[in-house]
Write a structure and sequence with these properties.
- It is built from nine helices and ten strands.
- The protein is an alpha/beta fold and 311 residues long.
- The chain has one domain (21-299): TIM Barrel (Alpha-Beta Barrel).
- Strands 1, 2, 3, 4, 5, 6, 7, 8, 9 and 10 form a ten-stranded mixed β-sheet that branches.
- Strand 7 (195-201) and strand 8 (204-218) form a beta hairpin.
- Helix 8 packs parallel to helix 9 (269-281).
- The longest helix has 16 residues, at 176-191.
- The chain is globular, with a radius of gyration of 18 Å.
- The protein binds iron/sulfur cluster.
Length: 311
């Protein structure tokens, strides 16, 4: 991998904290140089081309370089619930998920452990027969994306905000769009257009993504105009048919947010439909839209250390 990315003077994400994580210093994400994870199991709640019939082999990592105030996984992203595992154990977890029938290996919010993720993949790449999905909040550096060349088949980044005031307010990252959009461009140039494979499983024919980029955007309460700006940027600046869009309606306030009362509600059908209509009018017709009934807590799995080793 690119030797300029390291834990010693950490520059793994755009926060560029420059802390020495191998010496016990901690940056914004909260992670040390040892991998911490909270769950490794088959997961059915991703896009159909990721979850398929048997599920996506999903590994949730603890800590996060964004820590959005509304995060549905805050017990692991912000409170760092989880268990420390070695690179070898992570590699074995991936093989075990493959053995269980996972359609892919899905690395969720692992940016702050990138050197370890790549080391684990180095150990087992010759035995891994399924695609590797990098599922992230979008706040990535282009250098990190380049370091993943040859390791990651499918990128699943969020594109959360356009307006820097919004990203500063909710994720303490005023430069979010600047970095996320450049990272998405780099991801697309790395994977090329989405490629699918048909598989017949349990009597059903399913289309499974093998490589490519799916850009996720979750509509936030009161933020439909920001969503439209994101759609405008995607449709006008990225090549046609180079990625899929996944427009999500599942925003759910998981705990009262006194500081941001405007977020203490679900989005309305009107808000979501306005964004969907705008995406379709803008030519973003390839991808996924959620039914409004998706705003349920089923999307948050229990972070109970399932699938992690006992010692
Ligand atoms: S990965 Fe963590 S410590 Fe490193 S730059 Fe990002 S937030 Fe800071």
């Amino acid at each position: 991998m690119n030797v300029s990315l390291s834990y010693q003077s950490c520059n793994l994400c755009p926060r560029n904290c420059k802390v020495n994580r191998t010496a016990g210093q901690v940056g914004f994400c909260g992670g040390s140089h040892e991998i911490k994870a909270a769950r490794a199991a088959l997961h059915m709640w991703e896009e159909p081309c990721i979850s398929g019939i048997r599920g996506s082999g999903t590994i949730f990592f603890s800590g996060c370089s964004l820590k959005c105030c509304f995060c549905q996984n805050s017990s692991i992203s912000q409170d760092l619930t989880g268990k420390t595992i070695t690179v070898r154990q992570l590699a074995d977890i991936m093989l075990d998920l493959q053995e269980q029938g996972a359609h892919n290996i899905n690395l969720v919010t692992g940016s702050h452990y990138l050197p370890s993720l790549l080391s684990a993949l180095d150990l087992i790449r010759h035995r891994l027969l399924i695609p590797v999905v990098y599922n992230c909040g979008g706040y990535e550096s282009v250098e990190a994306v380049h370091a993943m060349k040859g390791y990651i088949d499918v990128f699943l980044p969020d594109l959360k905000y356009y307006d820097s005031a919004l990203s500063a307010k909710y994720s303490k990252a005023p430069d979010y769009f600047f970095h996320a959009f450049k990272a998405i461009e780099a991801m697309i140039s790395q994977t090329g257009k989405p490629v699918f494979r048909q598989e017949v499983s349990e009597g059903q024919s399913i289309s499974l993504i093998q490589k490519g980029v799916i850009v996720r955007h979750m509509v936030l309460p009161g933020c439909k105009e920001d969503s439209k700006k994101i759609i405008s940027m995607l449709s006008s600046l990225l090549p046609d048919h180079s990625f899929l869009i996944s427009l999500m309606s599942q925003y759910t306030p998981y705990r009262p947010m006194e500081q941001f009362p405007e977020l203490n509600r679900k989005i309305t059908s009107y808000e979501y439909n306005q964004v969907v209509d705008f995406a379709l009018e803008s030519g973003l017709t390839e991808g996924y839209m959620q039914k409004k009934t998706s705003a349920r807590e089923e999307y948050t799995p229990p972070f109970n250390l399932e699938g992690l080793p006992d010692n």
